[in-house]
Amino acid sequence: MSGLNLAQLQAVHYTEGPCLVLAGAGSGKTRVITHKIARLIETGLAPKRIAAITFTNKAAAEMRERASGLIGRQARDVLVCTFHALGVRMVREDGHALGLKPNFSILDQDDVTSILKDCAGGTTDAATARQWQWTISGWKNQGWDARKALAMAKDDHERSIALIMQRYEERLTAYQSVDFDDLIGLPMRLLKGHPEVREKWQRVLGHVLVDEYQDTNATQYELLKMLVGERARLTAVGDDDQSIYGWRGATLDNLKKLPVDFPQLKVIKLEQNYRSTSAILRAANHVIGPNPKLFPKTLFSELGEGEPVRVQDCDNEEHEAERAVARILSLRAAANPPPAWKSFAILYRANHQAKPFEKALRKANIPYKVSGGTSFFDRAEIRDLCAWFRLWINNDDDPAFLRAVANPKRGIGHTTLGALGSFATQHRTSMFGALFNAMLPAAVPKRALDGLAEFGRAINDLEYRARHTHGAQDARAFLADWLKDIAYEQHLYDAEDSEKVAAARWSNVLEFCDWMAQRAGGQIEDAAGTTTHKETKSLLEVAQTIALLSTISEREQEQDMVVLSTLHASKGLEWPHVILAGVTEGMLPFKLDDDEGRQQKIADDVAARLQEERRLMYVGITRAQASLAVSWTKKRKRGREMVACQPSRFIAEMKLDAGTAREDPREKLRQLRAEFAARAQAAAPAVRA
Ligand code: ATP
Ligand code: MG
């Protein structure tokens, strides 16, 4: 238990009841979780009875790695995952109580929009369907189903969306599919409505730990409460100043409710920041200052004053990117040995802001990677292959059927598929099920029938083989065979005009298969030639969790590259040198009056939105360890126009020119402690008397 301060130790050693660690950025909250896993095992709790819940899969991978560093092999059995992955596990084990078979499919955002479009008759545009999706997702995150939504609808518009939601629910049941929100909602329904399932999970889990607690939503909290039950062996760590997912339904109410729902809650505060220099921390404290406080907090650093925070005024976005590159190069030139590329991060508000930086970095031959951007899994070729996997796993997954049967093309046209669809509905079966129905020949033309039957046989055969393929080596061979069988490479070259694009897509496919194979485990050899042994999984098991993954490779982190990331995706991470870009009024804070789409769900209240933007800035600043530069542009592209811009109000709020010594929070803390000690001493004789 070395490397922990007193307050951290207290949090780690308190295992008898609910515990909340509430503290600012970089104060070692995540470290508390990893050490507490080790501590719980030390006290005799079996690793598989510990669940540690993280915000992303990447964070889970990192935590697993840290935990293995502390406790070795045992860390493998600890359930370190996101709420959604925990949900998959629960629904897979106990979903039968809700009428779901264990091989259900998980739909991604795109599947959901296309099903919604279809529910409305197919003439809707994508933007409207996405709006519906937001609304429905919001309802689901409050724990509502279509019936409830219909009852609560405020106007005709909401009523019509609730009716679409009703059809959407029916489809999902027919397809034996769930969406992301269901991965929280269904486990909650399971625990709520099925006491035997609830008791089982409360018995199974001896302690539940939650990182980034401030960004949980209402259903996640309900789920958590039911998972831990009366015994409440729960450790949550979080920071109200870093709550940045309000637009996606996260709510600080969960922090407020904890002491009410668990009166025996032990609240521990951490006050020392181990990440950033005083100069950086001071800027962060100043920025977050104007936000209302849920709990009073102090944060100090003993890492010294450090380099002052720089503000870079730039003419436009290209200039901003050039200056960022220049800064990276000069920081490298100034130190001996130069800091690695991976010690630099460029952070910004929105994905599209990465472009100019990518260009400038490429021009300077600097290796970089974009994280939190369009995921590998959103690419058409990867989604094609995933549709096949989904169909192996769940034959009732009609959206996957439609995609797989058409990619690569096998001469089965829309009319045939339309006829097959109506036949399936009539006979209350899935499209795949319909292929094997003795009455089908009467419903579709003979020519199409052969193609369909062949497709059905191929899927069955592949499914059987995927179930019996274990380990990386066999998985790799199987995947290669399969791609050759369906002539997927040829399909890509036929579909693309440009050979270069087709080649790039094919190389994505190969990378993807390699990654799938790696996950099947067994003997794995890495680039350096080191062999490790992992538990093997069948290819079918690997395929089922794909929908949850958004990062192609966990070893990516090891690569020596400059990181480009959105602020949202940077949560929980740290880099020695950070460049915070686009800190321009209208970008950060984001234009508060007329932003579209995703902002809808955030309260109409502009003040609340400004507060969330301010927390985003706070998250950005506090990612930096040794140096921080904040840049803004005098002009910014909006559509085709260039518009004149002002520096973000947050730059002034950092109060970079204010005196340093006077405002050292450490000094203030010492004063407070001295006063407290004096008061305690003054009170002591009275107590004795
Ligand atoms: P965030 O709010 O950004 O999620 P956090 O509170 O989770 O931050 P950690 O990531 O756990 O903070 O810790 C920040 C850094 O400080 C890490 O590099 C960690 O290793 C280090 N650290 C944490 N506690 C200590 C300690 N007691 N002694 C030395 N270093 C520490
Ligand atoms: Mg953390």
UniProtKB/TrEMBL annotation:
Gene3D superfamilies: 1.10.10.160, P-loop containing nucleotide triphosphate hydrolases, PCRA, domain 4. Residues 2-277 form the UvrD-like helicase ATP-binding domain. It is an enzyme of class 5 (isomerase). It catalyses: Couples ATP hydrolysis with the unwinding of duplex DNA by translocating in the 3'-5' direction; ATP + H2O = ADP + phosphate + H(+). ATP binds at residues 23-30, 275. GO terms for biological process: DNA replication; recombinational repair. GO terms for cellular component: cytosol. Its EC number is 5.6.2.4. Pfam families: UvrD-helicase, UvrD_C. Residues 278-572 form the UvrD-like helicase C-terminal domain. Keywords: ATP-binding, DNA replication, DNA-binding, Helicase, Hydrolase, Isomerase, Nucleotide-binding. GO terms for molecular function: 3'-5' DNA helicase activity; ATP binding; ATP hydrolysis activity; single-stranded DNA binding. Belongs to the helicase family. UvrD subfamily. Rep helicase is a single-stranded DNA-dependent ATPase involved in DNA replication; it can initiate unwinding at a nick in the DNA. It binds to the single-stranded DNA and acts in a progressive fashion along the DNA in the 3' to 5' direction. Homodimer. This is ATP-dependent DNA helicase Rep. It comes from Melaminivora suipulveris.
